[in-house]
Amino acid sequence: MAVIERRKEDLVKNQVYRDNDANLDVLKGKVIAVLGYGIQGGPQALCMRDSGLNVIVGAGPRDQFSDWDKAANDGFEVMSIADATRKADIVHVLLADPAQPSVYRDSIKKNLKSGCTLSFAHGFNVIYGIIQPPTDVNVVLFVPNSPGHLVREKYLQGSGIYGAVAVDQDVTGNALEIVLAIAKAVGSTRVGVVGVDFASETEGDNFEEQVLYGGTIALMQAVFDVMVENGYAPHFAYAKAIRSLRSVIDVMDEIGIEEYISERSSRTCEFAVRTSGPRVINRDEIRKIFMETSQGDFAARWMAEWQIGMVHLNRMRRTGQNSPMEKTGREWRKLFGKA
To answer: Which domains does the chain have, with CATH numbers?
Structure first.
């Protein structure tokens, strides 16, 4: 079968797909192997099964990983990753990025059926050439834009989580239909998925996590530290650093930033946001991080960190867990609850 290469300019059209653009019939009679039963694997597998699909789970050795027993307790047929790949028409890889290369090399690659679909939730290993799929399989991507527990929660509520789909390689001529059906089975087409390419999804995700997630958390920590350094009670500073932000994010998502600033906040708040907010943002550093991400520097640093056992990351975790802010947070939640 000839491989149909899809150029980037043909894929990135900001095309939004919804329920009526996807049809689960393309997956009927097919075996879908979800590889990994962790943060995304468990919720997505459960949603697919509830959508009427034939889902099996591939897991690591039972004596080393808890995924196997978790999936079995949820009623799935569980087998080794190699056996699940061998049996599947759609192989949905939901393993951690750094773990994928060795698992792909040892258990997936040699067991892929010609004409099957190899699906990822992140294009990291494909775009950086760490995983090079064979030319006789579809290569697609579906990612819901949230942690797995929210994917499941929204699905059960009859809604879904916005997501993205991509086709990197189409040998059957219907790879887009297949990945849209996967997205529909998980509930994402209920609210909409956007068409992207592998590079945009991967590098956009890495950039977002560094700047938006990392920057926001660092900003909350800085607010807490500076307030406490200047004599504020830690519990009060903690509420300002975290709870105050939480209270406005959903509103801004619902009505837009400008509507919130102009109509829903006080004039004092609006003046503060517009005049002081830009001072705490270093756009040069943001641009630098974007370039590092686009050039693969972030990916190289992360893979190197994984290969040495995440020694720096584990040390930063220990420091963070024992920080004054985290200790205050644990006390705060006991005093004021999680709501």
So the answer is: 8-196 (3.40.50.720), 201-336 (no CATH)
